[in-house]
Write a structure and sequence with these properties.
The complex is a heterodimer of chains A (about 400) and B (about 675). Chain A is an alpha/beta fold and about 400 residues long. Chain A is built from 19 helices and nine strands. Chain B is built from 20 helices and 34 strands. The chains are: A alpha/beta (about 400), B alpha/beta (about 675). The structure holds flavin-adenine dinucleotide and iron/sulfur cluster (2 copies).
């Protein structure tokens, strides 16, 4: 049967999708695609997608989207930004196309993986995807041996407002990085405070996963909260939060100077350096997609690692703009079993093997997703005892004591 | 406002009904009605197209019958038709400088789709008020210096120089490198004929070298430009060869015996050259130069082998840089292109992985005079069994260069043929679209396909040496989507050839400033009008040809170079050129002699006259840019055609019916 594009009747799903594309600024630009295929060739999960990005855009241009929307494709993107960074036509695959598909599916309630539903509901109810009570957000402060100002209890003007973000605040492993950063900030004499129970998820992954309404709600709430406090700049623990505050929040008029913690520490490297003792490790570094590829910051984390005496630094074959994603972005943290079902291997598992190939004994990271996913992956692929995953701030903290 | 004491004017206004220029943004009848009510306007007409012969005749008749003394046309850009209307005025006996355009095309229709209805009226009113104050001017003609300067000795410059010299005009050919030849000399065979590049080029180079009308200035650069169309004065820096050109016979004894080597620029670092060297064996002129920075004599005063061995005593370590003055009537810019260094596209592994080369490096490898004597070899000396060619590296890419480089598809096919001829390798072409549209190109494409190139439609995602199968071990693996099969593929190969974008020369900006040229969005020199004036530039008397204007093949380059030569000949043979009447003048009674303007004038047109204690502007040098007018603290300088009166009248016209913007709350 010959099917002409214009004749395909649009189902409600397809209609919702096209409505969404029409609504986003620059949605038209999706049509500038030259079908070169570099996106599909570059996508770390493209091999598992029934409609890898190029083919997906071909369908979009032909106006036949129903099958695409009902395929596994919409939920396999981990928002690593590789396709978008390489696309010669500057098509917004990661920021525009995938979220629009997902939004259509969420709105129509079609085929949304259960694990994702839960994370979104948790964010909606509790302000964090883990479903933890907001009242416990600042509990970690009790576990650290330096004073930390909780501005929700003690509102005062600070130099640095530190947004801790959800995994670091609640997750038992990620919490270690938060304590290490608190100690280091204290050692540097930084005047900082956290929002404690007033903090909500920044929401970048919710945005990329298609819950634009939820994202906008978070922007509004967070915008109001930030308005009430006096500070000079924000630092964040999570590159995804960095991305949202730098590139997305300003679109809604919430505009504050923001740095990832590695950038902040690198700017104070000369004060930090004399505090660092020797660490005898061979270290490789995994670039977080949202610090590196999306926002072009490759140097700050490397400067910190290389500032530690005794360290031998080695690069993985794929590094900087070519770094392989951990698989946790764009909601990947909440779609893990879905992705595994189709890909049969986690990107994090591939990546720790790459790290091990460099001969490093430490794989340094600076994104909470990376920390959790790579630690699991090290166990799964049997690299325990050979490769340790550490956040850069943990290395700095250790070196400071050593 | 027309004051009571001021003179009466008789202004004619013509509204073009040109669909895309005026009709798109204005109601022409309303505009005509509006014009007819403006002071001093004696006639306002709409016309189908003012620029047509009929339209011009209407204007001419009105000038004669209604004794018009000013003419205003509301229509397109002055770039396009100012000269047309000025000519019409002159033909009807009106001084052509009493004509004014209201630029509805550029200011309204082409800029904003649903522009506001007020703007065309405001522009028209401004034009009419300005026209009121226009003064008649006399355009001047100056004799043309019949000599021509060609900058750049690639195929474009060579072709233009030969055409001009063959018609009996003196040509200075200035080339930065020690030899002429340009990029074409670096190529092996050329598509679509597969002739030897040097076979076509060498005879032309020799012809340049012995042409009585060509003065070849190699290893030289233009450093200063003064004057204007018809009479340019330039300074050319002649770098020292440290070899006396009048004595050297090009025997090559010095080169053969020089003890040191370094990577050859001509061979892109794949081969070596001596410290005293000619760029390549057929260099023109065949005179070596000494690389001063690496010469043992200049470094520590030792060696002098070349000096000792030269029978003709041509080595001259004391040679100094010279500046030579030349005067010409026209300039042809033929400075060519650079190749994009693809290292920033780190995914392709250039300069990181062995056996990943650029196309130009591959040309040198294929060349019989190149580092491998024409053999296609891997770093270890063996022949490749498989080769991947990656198209569009940096071209057609919003992150790098938006445009298509136009020759890569064709030379990539050429590489297929050469590789299949000289090795047993499989050749994979990774392409996005095959752009093969020149004469003979489609046939060439078919020929290469039949010879067994493997075409993969898909831009390469990455090149890696990390094997995941036994087949990939020790190879370069090319990862891509085969977009026709919709499948992700990994193809292990031995050699990868990248086809990088052709880019503007690194010093394009400096050259543009020196010569007063504009650059397009792509960074190349901009032609005056892409269709009808493809070689002229915004700077009168300066022409641009070849890849200096944008990527193109040799066929198009030669055609364009010949075309520019014809343009220049037409100008020279006319004997005179008209220069714009627009210039600035100093009112000596107001000049305080502060000399601020001297430093401001970009054309050195102003001098201070001691006797009068005042500045004076040479109207041959002055281009009417107006910098001095704005800069003079005493307000002593005015530019005709841009007097304060005219500009203020224009502003008043623009604002006359404007409503004040709402006050910000
Ligand atoms: C890899 C490759 C393969 C190609 N193969 C083919 C082919 O097979 N067939 C084909 O038709 N075309 C081919 N081309 C295109 C061809 O190279 C060009 O069309 C041609 O060389 C353009 O000549 P040009 O004189 O404009 O520029 P160029 O060859 O670049 O010459 C410019 C000259 O100006 C000189 N110069 C630059 N700046 C200055 C300055 N400021 N002052 C003085 N001198 C200066 C340079 O030294 C140079 O000698 C190929 C191109 C590439 C990149
Ligand atoms: S990389 Fe961009 S242009 Fe190429 S197929 Fe993908 S979306 Fe289209
Ligand atoms: S962002 Fe990454 S995972 Fe998502 S489609 Fe692009 S390349 Fe694939």
């Amino acid at each position: 049967m010959v099917q002409t594009a214009s004749r395909e009747a649009r189902g409600p799903l397809t209609q919702a999708f096209f409505d969404r594309i029409a609504a986003v600024a620059e949605g038209e630009k999706l049509k500038a695609c030259i079908q070169c295929g570099i996106c599909s060739g570059s996508c770390p999960l493209g091999f598992a997608m029934q409609y890898p990005p190029r083919r997906l855009i071909a369908s979009l241009r032909a106006g036949v989207m129903e099958q695409v929307l009902q395929s596994n494709t919409p939920w396999l993107c981990v928002a690593c930004y590789t396709c978008t960074a390489r696309c010669p036509s500057a098509v917004g695959i990661t920021d525009m196309l995938f979220p629009a598909m997902r939004e259509a599916l969420l709105m129509q309630g079609v085929g949304v993986p259960g694990e994702l539903q839960t994370a979104l509901e948790n964010t909606f109810r509790h302000g964090n995807p883990l479903g933890e009570p907001p009242s416990k957000r600042a509990d970690w402060i009790q576990e650290v041996d330096v004073p930390v100002t909780d501005l929700s209890a003690d509102p005062r003007e600070v130099d640095i407002l530190w947004l801790v973000e959800c995994y670091p605040a609640y997750h038992v492993r990620a919490k270690e990085t938060v304590k290490a950063l608190a100690r280091t900030l204290h050692a540097l004499g930084a005047d900082f405070g956290v929002l404690g129970q007033e903090e909500r998820c920044v929401g970048d992954s919710q945005r990329l996963v298609g819950e634009n309404g939820l994202f906008e709600m978070l922007v509004e709430e967070n915008g109001k909260t930030l308005d009430r406090f006096q500070f000079r700049q924000i630092i964040v623990t999570d590159p995804h939060a960095y991305n949202a505050l730098k590139n997305e929040y300003p679109k809604y008029g919430v505009n504050y100077p923001v740095q990832h913690y590695t950038q902040y520490l690198a700017s104070r490297l000369e004060e930090l350096r004399p505090m660092l003792g020797e660490l005898n490790h061979t270290i490789t570094f995994h670039d977080p997609c949202y610090l590196g590829r999306r926002n072009g910051e490759y140097e700050a984390p490397r400067q910190l690692i290389q500032a530690i005496p005794g360290v031998t630094f080695v690069e993985m074959e794929r590094n900087r703009e070519n770094g392989l994603c951990c698989g946790g972005g764009g909601g990947g943290m909440w779609l893990d079993s879905f992705a595994y079902e189709y890909a049969k291997e986690r990107l994090s598992e591939k990546r720790v093997r790459e790290a091990a190939r460099t001969g490093a004994d430490v794989m340094a990271v600076c994104c909470p997703n990376d920390l959790l996913r790579f630690e699991d992956a090290v166990k799964v692929v049997g690299l325990e005892g050979k490769l340790v995953v550490k956040d850069i701030i943990e290395l700095i903290d250790e070196a400071r004591k050593g | 406002m027309v004051g009571a004491t001021e003179q009466k004017r008789r202004i004619g206004v013509y509204i073009c009904h040109c669909p895309t220029t005026v009709v798109d943004s204005a109601d022409v009848d309303e505009l005509r009605e509006f014009a007819s009510r403006l002071p001093s306007v004696v006639v306002a007409r709409g016309c189908e197209a003012g620029c047509s012969e009929r339209g011009q005749n209407v204007i001419k008749d009105d000038i004669r019958n209604l004794r018009l003394d000013r003419v205003v046309v509301a229509g397109c850009s002055p770039h396009t038709h100012e000269s047309t209307f000025r000519r019409a005025c002159r033909d009807a006996g009106l001084n052509p400088y009493l004509f004014q355009i209201a630029n509805i095309g550029e200011q309204c229709s082409w800029a904003q789709r649903n522009g506001n209805g007020h703007k065309p009226k405001a522009l028209l009113q401004a034009a009419v008020r300005r026209a009121y104050h226009l003064e008649p001017l006399q355009s001047r003609e100056v004799p043309v210096n019949p000599n021509v300067l060609v900058i750049g000795g690639g195929i474009a410059g060579i072709q233009a120089a030969l055409r001009l010299a063959d018609s009996g005009h003196k040509v200075y050919l200035v080339e930065r490198e020690p030899s002429i030849g340009g990029r074409m000399m670096q190529l092996d065979k050329v598509f679509p004929t597969l002739e030897d590049s040097s076979y076509i080029l060498s005879p032309k180079m020799t012809a340049v070298a012995c042409h009585p009308y060509i003065q070849l200035m190699t290893y030289s650069e233009v450093v200063d430009v003064a004057g204007r169309v018809g009479n340019f004065r330039l300074k050319v820096r002649r770098k020292p060869h440290y070899v006396d050109e009048s004595k050297c016979t090009g025997c090559g004894v010095c080169v053969a015996n020089c003890p040191l080597k370094r990577p050859s620029e001509f061979d892109l670092g794949l081969g070596k050259r001596k410290i005293i060297y000619t760029s390549f064996s057929q260099a023109v002129p065949n005179i070596p130069v000494i690389d001063r920075d690496r010469c043992l004599y200049f470094d520590r005063g030792t060696c002098r082998v070349c000096e000792r061995l030269c029978e003709h005593r041509a080595i001259d370590f004391d040679q100094q840089e010279r500046i030579e003055d030349i005067e010409v009537g026209a300039i042809i810019v033929a400075t060519g292109y650079d190749l994009f260094d693809p290292s920033p596209m780190s995914r392709y592994g250039y300069k990181q992985l062995g056996n990943v080369l650029t196309s130009l490096e591959f040309e040198r490898m294929c060349s019989a005079t190149g580092p491998t004597g024409g053999a296609i070899r891997l770093n270890d000396g063996s022949a490749p069994e498989s080769v991947a060619i990656i198209h569009c590296v940096g071209s057609r890419d919003r992150n790098y260069f938006d445009y298509c480089s136009r020759v890569c598809c064709m030379y990539a096919l050429k590489y297929s043929l050469l590789t299949r001829e000289r090795t047993n390798a499989d050749v994979f072409q990774f392409y996005i679209d095959m752009h093969c549209c020149g004469k003979g190109s489609e046939e060439f494409y078919r020929h290469a396909s039949e010879r067994g190139s493997k075409f993969v439609r898909g831009e390469v995602a990455e090149v890696t040496d990390q094997a995941i199968t036994a087949e990939e071990r020790g190879k370069l693996t090319v990862v891509a989507e085969d977009t026709l099969l919709g499948r992700r593929i990994r193809i292990p190969v031995d050699m990868v050839i990248l086809c990088p974008a052709m880019t503007p020369r690194r010093d394009t900006e400096e050259m543009a400033r020196l010569l007063g040229l504009a650059r397009g969005a792509d960074g190349f020199f901009l032609e005056r009008q892409p269709k009808v004036e493809p070689t002229a530039t915004s700077s009168n008397g300066v022409f641009v040809v070849g890849c200096a204007q944008g990527p193109r093949d040799i066929t198009d380059t030669i055609a364009q170079a010949s075309a520019a030569a014809a343009e220049v000949l037409a100008m020279i043979n006319g004997g005179k050129v008209e220069i714009e009447a627009t210039s600035a003048a100093v009112d000596e009674s107001l000049c305080s002699g502060c000399k601020v303007c001297l430093a401001l004038c970009p054309y050195d047109a102003i001098s201070f006259i001691e006797d009068k204690k005042a500045c004076q502007i040479s109207d041959v040098e002055c281009k009417g840019c107006g910098v001095c007018v704005a800069g003079c603290p005493a307000g002593a300088i005015s530019a005709n055609q841009f007097t304060d009166k005219q500009i203020l009248a224009e502003i008043e016209g623009l604002l006359a019916d404007a409503k004040p913007p709402p006050l910000a709350v």
